[in-house]
Specification:
Radius of gyration: 25 Å
Number of strands: 7
Strand order of the largest sheet: 1-4-5-6-7
Structural class: alpha+beta
Shape: globular
Order of helices and strands: HHHHEEEEEHEEHHHHHHHH
Helix content: 40-55%
Distance between the termini: 35 Å
Number of helices: 13
Length: 373
Amino acid sequence: MSAHAFLAPSSAHRWVLCPASPGMEAKYPEQGDKPSAVEGTAAHAVMEAMLANRAPPPDATPEMIDGAMLVVDVVRNILAHHPGAWIMVEKPVQIPRVHPQNWGTPDVRIWDEGSQNLWVIDYKFGHGVVEIFENWQLVDYVAGCLTEINAMNSVAGMPATSEVGVMVHMAVIQPRAYHPLGPVRWWEVGATLLRDRIHHLSMAADEATSATAQCKPHPVACEHCSARHACDALQRAAYRGMDIARAAIGVDLPPAALGLELRMVDEALQLLEARKSGLAQQVEMLMRAGKVVPHWTMVAGQTREKWVKPDAEVIALGVMMGADLAKPPEAITPAQAKAKGVDATVVAAFSMRPPGAMKLVINNGAQARRVFS
């Protein structure tokens, strides 16, 4: 088994929409390690160490330790209520139920045979918000875990576990990405209700591994695809977006036509942005290698001005000049107060979360599906 699966669970949200993406990404992999990826790997090492009651690695930052504690608290709470459960941290799982070329490494998985409860936890240290409902990566992991449970039962001479009575608890834990539901978000559903989604993954996997897999541009699939700069289908979709932008727009459109056109324009803009970011990455790589790319140049960006002298010297300077340069004391944020151990109910009595500005968002039916799932 190689280090990375052709059908990786972490990119399931991509290949479930664009069958050709695994092959395209294998042909055009990421160039070098992104700083965010290096940081994410380090954060996961901190989490793994703390779950094993080991000291964090020397390069662990306070932010990484705080993020790992979120995972540790969740896991400890589960095990406190299910003392007979077994836990696996950062251990690979095969997912033959979806496809032989599908395997991955869940961050944390916990199984309690007595209560028939399965927990699969995904820790994300990045700033990009990851939704929990209909999260294809977690559904993929669950498919592997359910197969694994029965394989373990078989080895132990135990009867197979029926999915009818299994309750699945999937979680995304994100300490650095704001979400109305908080940094720990759950999607809890009976295992049988995931069968259709697992079957959908299996069909998508078969298509992705076929010789006729086609590129199907989609904002979600294209956004971070490493091959987006080399995708003819995305290029054509981007050109169509340009045509839409240049087309005359009728006035007084009826609501149905207005909503449809706005959605088409929004999707076209997202595809254009995906294409743009892929091309920009390639242009920057060429220019850093000393190549000349017509129409583009590299310039240093502007940063915030900051003092080069110690604060005490700056404040003393202000006194000499008749200006108060000392920043007055201010309270830390409510989130920081809770992180320091102040009870959340006490914080709530002294804080509020003002409503954000109203904004348009695409209604893809996810809220309705969540209600009835």
